Amino acid sequence: MAALPLVRAGLRVLMLERGDWIRRGEHNRSWSLRWNEREAYDPDSAFLAEGESRGPVGMLHCVGGASVFFGGVGLRFRERDFEGDPNVSGDVRWCLGYGDLAAYYDEAERLLGVTGDGHDDVTSPPRTRPLPPPALPLSPTSAALADAARRIGLNPFRLPMALNGDDTSGRARCTACDTCDGFPCAIGAKNDVSTVVLPALLAGGLALRPNMVVSRLVARGARVVEAQCVERDTGAARRFRGKQFVLAAGALATPHILLSSGLAARNPAGDMVGRHLMRHCNGVVVGAAPAPWGDPADFRKQIGLHDFYFGDSEAEGPAGKLGGIQQLRATRIALAMAPLPAGVRQALGSMLGRLVGLIVMAEDQPRPENRVVLDPRRSDGYGGPAALVQHRHSPRDRQARRALARRAVQILREMGAAFSIVLPVRTFSHAMGTVRMGEDPRRFPVAPDGRFRGLENLWIADASAFPTAGAVNPSLTISANALRVATGIVAGWSAARPSHPRLELERVGGTGQRAGASARWTRPSARRPGAPDTLGASSARQRPGASDAPAERPDR
Questions:
Q1: Over the stretch 507-537, which tens digit does the pLDDT of each residue have?
Q2: The whole model's pTM is what?
Q3: In the chain, how many H helices and how many E strands?
């Protein structure tokens, strides 16, 4: 997303991506493949987890980043999320208000084709225009879940989803299959970044180098001057130079690159680089009924509940904010996410038609002991040190999860569930923090405009900059903040070079608010010779990346 305002402004942008394009087709629907056998999965990543999760942290590396595998939920942070909660984050709050991101949320939703109906979301933030209607009708299971929640006095709402339901877009329309959350879309109907954003940027002049591992950023004085890289396919060393660098490698890889490059030492809050890792405190709640609820392959990620987002005065639990409850797209996803014994997993798998899954999402505390640190005992495989991911949820985190899980069990019981199972989620799919943004240069490595303090031309545009986690899926806020940071870079560049010609990009194709889902960019005029200004953007979450000018390679 950070590349979009830069390309619009006519800047020469190179995106360095660790992974490759994902092949689309029926093979993407396979349930027989284990996670570590899936395309783009890298079991030999540089990260080793210590704490609640132990062992190697496998990563997904591909063009489009984690959006290719995400479940499609496009929720905004709540207005009060930006104010912090002393029960959760102490005195830490965002240096931005909701109003600072509102216009960028609008743009991100338009680009990603988010649809939904938030009228019944009791925490929904203000917006200038409503979302388009939901792309898909409610499935029978989703309707039964919503009815049960209403019977016990709750306010279920339709989750906003980035799925293509537009027959006029020229793209495949979502078929409501059960291989979406955790899968690349076989037909390209999920509005991930590689499908609805990158093609337009490539047509508008973006240069993309896939399979390029950024191993180090080199600084001289107060500026980053080059990105040192290794080609995954050949092992060849490459260097890329640029005038501005945008790092958007995710909350694990971004601090790893900064620490490996020695750049934390240049930052007045250098000791904070890698700290305050958050990932939400999530749990899966699966309920089983005596009779089938419907086709186990039907669409089951449509309903959310935020009645207890800011607390639950009627139930035992911690003071302050709790979080949300969401339906899972398919119960098989719930079983795949949960750390179940093989026998239990097999028994539940045989009764999929009788299962409904919910996920509870509690905001976790940003604690300095939860962090990413270098591990000099191991190599990252590309000439640098590997990393340790040290994380444990606090007692309050777990209390919040339990309080939400009790409410989820209550809903499933109202649906007719004879029993329910509650299990924790131990993935880092919602990793945030580690290079936090804030006003105080002694506590926050990133300034409010997204600049990495201590360097003039390095910008952070991913979830690592989040000072607190909220309790909704972070993807839309990542996109909105990346658009904000990059727009600020363009504004600063334009002020410094007011006479520089700008490339005008116009949108063609598509109609209505979802036109961005199938838009392409055209150049009305050719670039004038002598336009040397170069900015760079890395790829999206969990992808080590950096920036550069048009492929200058001093090493060749």
A1: 223 333 333 333 333 333 333 333 223 334 3
A2: 0.88
A3: 11, 26
Average pLDDT, the chain: 84
The pLDDT of residue 43 is 66
Cβ-based burial of 342 (10 A; exposed 0-12, middle 13-18, buried ≥19): exposed
Q: List the alpha helices (DSSP H) in 354-461.
A: 395-415
The DSSP output letter for 272 is: G
Q: Is 426 helix (H, G, I), strand (E, B) or coil?
A: coil
Contacts of residue 248, defined as CB under 8 A and 6 or more positions apart, other chains included, come to 2, 254, 460, 461, 462, 482, 537, 538, 539, 540, 541, 543, 545
What average pLDDT does range 414-418 have in this prediction?
91
Segments of 435-513 assigned E as strands: 458-460, 506-508
pLDDT for 176 equals 84
Q: How far apart are CA 115 and CA 33, in angstroms?
A: 31
Task: Give Cβ neighbours of residue 395 (< 8 Å, ≥ 6 apart).
Answer: none
Q: Collect contacts of 134-137 with beta carbons under 8 A, ≥24 apart.
A: 134/158, 134/161, 134/165, 134/302, 135/161, 135/163, 135/164, 135/165, 135/166, 135/174, 136/161, 136/163, 136/165, 136/174, 136/176, 136/299, 136/302
Stated as kind and residue range, the H or E segment containing 103 is helix 98-112
Q: Which domains does the chain have, with CATH numbers?
A: 3-548 (3.50.50.60)
Question: Are the CB atoms for 432 and 422 separated by under 8 Å?
Answer: no
| Paired tokens of 462 | 């991913």
